[in-house]
Write a structure and sequence with these properties.
Structural class: alpha/beta
Distance between the termini: 29 Å
Largest sheet: 7 strands, parallel
Number of helices: 10
Strand content: 15-25%
Order of helices and strands: HEHHEEHHEHEHEEEHEEEHEEEHE
Strand order of the largest sheet: 6-5-4-9-12-14-15
Radius of gyration: 19 Å
Number of strands: 15
């Protein structure tokens, strides 16, 4: 197999699973250990991965955060599947928290026939909920222009007044040791509070968020159930030891 083809496959597996083991790469690519180690070194030099003991993982950019337009364009089909699945957990009469995010936004079309009250920290989501004729309360505070999230002490104090049957949360990272994480400290505070105020919390993520760690820890994995399109096989058992994992398809 040509070097370029091996590199392409390694990056594809990293994009899918978040990390790869050296011994698996040797087997999958039918190459020697020295060849694979050289491949990983070259890809690390290019900034495309980080070598770890026994393998490699996707590079971490702890404070990097895409804007809503960029987020909405990534893994669109997977987000819609997860969002439709999440909407099935809503019961008529629920008061729910809908976190700002591109995946939680995809829930709104599947909520149109539900009789619910929604609290959200997103002006954009609030406008879409109004269009869908869904009762909504939007938190007040400073609007973060990149993510359309309302943040700050005013939003937090208002949020603490409410109790929710269910909270549906977006996250930037899901990692076994660091739990749920996000790049922005102010958003992390609101996410943490919303989870604490809910009888039941769900984190909506696609497969690309696993084995990722952002700047600020929000909560341990046990604080919420994970709704996803698919979880990388390499960490599924470890994830399910800590929380409930619900996959749309495997």
């Amino acid at each position: 197999m040509l070097t370029e083809e091996r590199h392409r496959k390694i990056i594809e597996w990293l994009e899918r699973d978040g990390l790869v083991k050296l011994q698996n790469l040797i087997q999958w690519l039918d190459s020697s250990e020295s060849t694979i180690r050289r491949d990983l070194h070259e890809l690390e030099e290019l900034g495309l991965l980080e070598r770890i003991h026994g393998g490699a993982k996707r590079p971490q950019h702890l404070e990097q955060e895409l804007g809503m337009i960029e987020k909405s364009a990534k893994n669109v089909q997977q987000k819609k599947l997860v969002a439709e699945y999440a909407a099935d957990f809503i019961t008529d009469g629920d008061v729910i928290y809908l976190d700002a995010g591109s995946t939680t936004a995809e829930m709104i079309p599947f909520m149109k026939k539900r009789t619910v009250t929604v609290v959200t920290n997103s002006v954009g989501l609030a406008a879409r909920l109004v269009e869908a004729q869904i009762a909504v309360i939007v938190l007040g505070g400073r609007i973060k222009l990149t993510t359309d999230a309302v943040v700050g002490s005013q939003a937090l104090e208002q949020l603490k007044q409410y109790r929710f049957n269910k909270a549906f949360m977006g996250m930037n990272g899901v990692q076994i040791d660091s739990g749920y994480s996000t790049p922005d400290p102010e958003e992390a505070i609101l996410k943490r509070a919303a989870i604490q105020q809910a009888e039941e919390a769900f984190v909506l993520v696609d497969h690309s968020k696993f084995n990722q760690t952002s700047f600020v820890s929000v909560a341990p994995l046990s604080a919420a159930s994970i709704l996803t399109d698919t979880c990388p096989l390499i960490i599924r058992d470890q994830i399910t030891e800590q929380t409930t994992l619900k996959e749309v398809y495997v």
